[in-house]
């Protein structure tokens, strides 16, 4: 009996040591990732919050400003206009880009001759730098020497001020964003469509369904999780867009393309008002959370 008690106590001690050893091994494996996350994300976020409650004095020192930066934010009409511009760009570019990507993926999934080469060509714009893309469209949309105006003039139309007209400037930026979005999401949709069981399409063909009905009744419902993911990522990416606007329009004309991130960048690095730029960043954060939450709720309902 005593030997059994000693054996059970030894087993408990051994299991306790094993648990502690496994726990410390887990900490060692997770530790480097947590350290990188803290250095690159958590500490900068804390510093941004700290900056939003301070204001730089003429001598270059930071002084506690309380909520003055936030009061300035709520009275900043250009900030709210930039949010409106960003929402217009986000919804328009996401709708056009995702729709084009979905249609292209459906066409490429039909195994047309040369579709493999088309898949590569469609993906090239998404791996190209935004700066390079913007410079290319800056030349294409140029009023005097752009290809678009050259073709329009040859077709008998007048030259168009793509980047100088307040309404057309936003349209131009939206088209560039949609072009990049379609390039990025086409391979994602294509992979999702190729994983749909072919029996569903065969059964639909037997029932007399045509291609459009198969697309809306089978393809779209079957890739709802992927579609929800791409919508959320498109919205977040659109709010982070600044390089295209910076090169094409610089936020103009008449602030018609002044997106939020461009306005934050201008306050921080053009006006050297980093404290207020930090406050604007925090003002943008709830909007991103709200849009993401709405998208996730919507996707959950569609999944049910």
Explain briefly what this protein structure is.
The protein is mostly helical and 304 residues long.
Write the layout of secondary structure elements.
Blueprint: H1 2-52, E1 54-56, E2 62-64, H2 68-74, H3 77-108, H4 115-127, H5 130-140, H6 147-154, H7 166-194, H8 198-206, H9 211-222, H10 224-239, H11 243-248, H12 260-270, H13 274-303
Antiparallel strand pairs: 1-2
Structural summary, described in words:
By secondary structure, the protein is mainly alpha-helical. It has two domains: 2-52; 77-303, MetI-like fold (Orthogonal Bundle). 77% of the residues lie in helices and 2% in strands. The protein has 13 helices and two strands. The chain has a two-stranded antiparallel sheet. Helix 3 (77-108) packs parallel to helix 7. The longest helix is centred in the N-terminal third of the chain and has 51 residues, at 2-52. It is globular and about 75 Å long. The model has no long low-confidence stretch (mean pLDDT 82).
């Amino acid at each position: 009996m005593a030997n059994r008690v000693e054996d059970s106590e030894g087993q408990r001690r051994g299991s306790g040591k094993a648990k502690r050893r496994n726990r410390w091994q887990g900490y060692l494996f997770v530790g480097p990732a947590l350290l990188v996350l803290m250095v690159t994300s958590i500490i900068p976020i804390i510093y941004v919050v700290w900056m939003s409650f301070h204001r730089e004095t003429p001598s270059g020192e930071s002084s506690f400003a309380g909520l003055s930066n936030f009061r300035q934010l709520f009275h900043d009409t250009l900030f709210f206009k930039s949010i409106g511009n960003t929402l217009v760009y986000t919804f328009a570019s996401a709708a056009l880009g995702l729709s084009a990507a979905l249609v292209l993926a459906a066409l490429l999934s039909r195994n047309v001759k040369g579709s493999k080469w088309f898949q590569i060509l469609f993906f090239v714009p998404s791996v190209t730098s935004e700066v390079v893309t913007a410079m290319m469209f800056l030349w294409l949309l140029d009023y005097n020497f752009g290809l678009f105006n050259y073709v329009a003039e040859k077709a008998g139309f007048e030259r168009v001020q793509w980047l100088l007209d307040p309404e057309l400037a936003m349209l131009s930026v939206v088209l560039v964003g949609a072009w990049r979005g379609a390039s990025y999401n086409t391979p994602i949709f294509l992979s999702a469509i190729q994983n749909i069981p072919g029996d569903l399409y065969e059964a639909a063909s037997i029932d007399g369904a045509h291609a459009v009905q198969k697309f809306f009744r089978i393809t779209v419902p079957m890739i709802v999780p992927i579609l929800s993911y791409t919508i959320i990522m498109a919205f977040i990416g659109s709010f982070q867009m600044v390089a295209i606007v910076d090169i094409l329009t610089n936020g103009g004309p008449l602030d018609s393309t002044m997106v939020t991130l461009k306005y934050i960048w201008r306050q921080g690095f053009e006006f050297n008002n980093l404290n207020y730029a930090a406050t604007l960043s925090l003002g943008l954060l709830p909007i991103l959370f709200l849009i993401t939450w709405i998208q996730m709720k919507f996707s959950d309902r569609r999944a049910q």
